[in-house]
Specification:
By secondary structure, this protein is mainly alpha-helical. The protein contains 14 helices and no strands.
Length: 296
């Protein structure tokens, strides 16, 4: 496979993936977000502040190689992916909340992802001057995330039957896309795969466990309903590894930086499935507080 061709194709493929997300959205979802500021704030704060801080701490404590550390930080800065909606559906989470937060976090990541990535490159690669992502690359991130989502929403509004027809194929495409990205990153570094897993395997496991723990326990402790807490769990832990790997390969030109996201793809699906099974076997948590009985 020609790597130049594949890297040029990545943004196009990701755009189709994000359009699939748009097929599940309507303007009603965004109005619903405005009526639940507490849970939205908790989820976004957990994603952008708590988890990125934990990722940085993991990088420091485990003394990760610089490029792998940047890759883990890039992963932490990536928003929740469409797959989080599927997990939320399977394990009885608030699906509407998932879709809304996914859309909002994707929009916010246009600004937060380059910022966190820039700081990570400066710190771990010992850059003497700030590393600026070219404006054209930041614009590229916008065009391969937000614009396709808007197009997907338009298709759903104008051709509702068509959106239902292509919804399942788009989900299958999303899974195939992640697998293709993972295989490409692993193929490029296949001779060092064992070494990479030794270097980043423990870090990704710790980060995934932390994401699940924070995503479920923090909302519950703050009086959020169990259904919404489950949605938060998968929204926070199921990172959009497609965005992370696309940024690493097509924007930064480094398959090494893409490795943490590739390894995390396996780890997050495994851990999220086990975690979802565990919480589904437990009695539903019913908050008796006012905040628990009402929509947050």
């Amino acid at each position: 496979m020609d790597s130049v061709f594949f890297m040029s194709l990545l943004p196009v493929l990701l755009a189709f993936l994000m359009m699939g997300l748009g097929l599940e959205l309507t303007t009603t979802h965004f109005f619903r977000v405005l009526r639940k500021p507490k849970i939205i704030f908790i989820t976004l704060f957990s994603q952008l502040v708590i988890l990125t801080s934990l990722a940085f701490l993991i990088c420091i404590v485990l003394e990760l190689p610089p490029l792998l550390a940047v890759g883990l930080m890039l992963l932490a800065a990536s928003p929740g992916g469409p797959t989080a909606n599927i997990f939320s559906y399977l394990y009885k989470g608030d699906i509407a909340l998932n879709i809304s937060i996914t859309a909002m976090s994707t929009l916010i990541s246009i600004f937060t992802l380059p910022f966190i990535l820039n700081l990570s490159l400066m710190y771990f690669l010992s850059e003497q001057t700030p590393v600026d992502l070219p404006a054209i690359k930041i614009t590229q991130v916008f065009f391969i995330t937000v614009i396709p989502v808007i197009i997907g929403m338009f298709i759903r509004a104008r051709f509702p039957s068509l959106s239902i027809t292509v919804n399942r194929p788009m989900r299958i495409f999303s899974i195939a896309f992640l697998i293709a990205l993972f295989c490409f990153a692993i193929f490029k570094e296949r001779y060092n795969l064992v070494e990479y897993f030794e270097n980043i395997g423990i870090a990704t496991i710790l980060f995934c466990f932390s994401s699940l723990f924070v995503g479920y326990c923090v909302p519950i402790l703050l009086g959020i309903r169990d259904e919404q807490a489950r949605a938060c769990t998968f929204e926070i832990s199921i990172h959009n590894t497609a965005i992370a790997m696309t940024m690493a390969i097509s924007v930064l030109g480094s398959t090494m930086i893409a490795v943490p996201a590739g390894i995390y793809t396996i780890v997050m699906y495994t851990f999220a499935t086990l975690f979802g099974f565990i919480i589904s076997r437990q009695p539903r948590v019913i908050n008796t507080t006012k905040s628990g009985l009402q929509d947050s």
